[in-house]
Write a structure and sequence with these properties.
- By secondary structure, the protein is mostly helical.
- It has a domain of 134 residues: Up-down Bundle (Four Helix Bundle (Hemerythrin (Met), subunit A)).
- It is 54% helix and 0% strand.
- α4 crosses α5 and α5 packs parallel to α6.
- The longest helix has 22 residues.
Length: 192
């Protein structure tokens, strides 16, 4: 059994897994489009997202304050295994019912947030480490709607920066460039 959320996660996850697998150990201290994160920090954050959103699918509480270092031996394989678990966690239709006890938002939005992090942070890591990245096209429509919905609150909370104009000659495809711009990223990063 699958859900729309698990199908979209299944389409997006391998693209981000490929990027993660392509990150060399000597690239872990490179800057990323996420101003507060170098590659190592962003990888640890994305690991935390992938693991915690499995629990959120089961409507279980999660701990965001702990910041474990996930980048020990075999971290690339573990990241892939955890993304597989994330997809499986959202494949039961009951995961999309109701409101998340820990986050106070509809479960459908919570699943979309996992998809957003996989997609946007996949791009962040790719451009930071000089890799190509192409998002799952079927995810972009959903993500544009989600960012539109979450944008004002996410900006107040500092999760998104203020939107920037989408460059007409952006390096990524126009749909991805628009999504990145709406989260406050410069699609032509590292150049303005």
């Amino acid at each position: 059994m699958t859900t729309q959320t698990s199908d979209l996660l299944a389409a997006a996850a391998p693209r981000t897994v490929d990027v993660v697998r392509g990150i060399a150990d000597d690239q872990l201290d490179l800057p990323t489009p996420c101003h507060d994160y170098v590659v190592r920090d962003l990888l640890n954050h994305l690991f935390e997202v992938v693991v915690n959103f499995q629990e959120l699918a089961a409507k279980q509480p999660v701990e965001w304050a702990e910041k474990p270092d996930h980048l020990s031996d075999g971290w690339r394989d573990r990241f892939e295994a955890e993304t597989d678990r994330l997809v499986a966690a959202w494949s039961d239709p009951s995961t999309l019912e109701g409101v998340s006890p820990g986050m106070g938002m509809p479960q459908t939005v919570i699943g979309g947030m996992a998809l957003l992090d996989l997609t946007v942070h996949g791009w962040d890591l790719a451009v930071a480490t000089g890799q190509p990245y192409s998002p799952a096209p079927e995810a972009l429509v959903e993500l544009h709607e989600l960012v539109e919905q979450l944008g004002p609150t996410a900006r107040k909370m500092g999760v998104f920066a203020d939107p920037i104009p989408t460059p007409t000659t952006a390096a990524p495809a126009p749909d991805l460039a628009h999504l990145l711009s709406q989260t406050g990223r410069t699609p032509t990063w590292p150049t303005p």
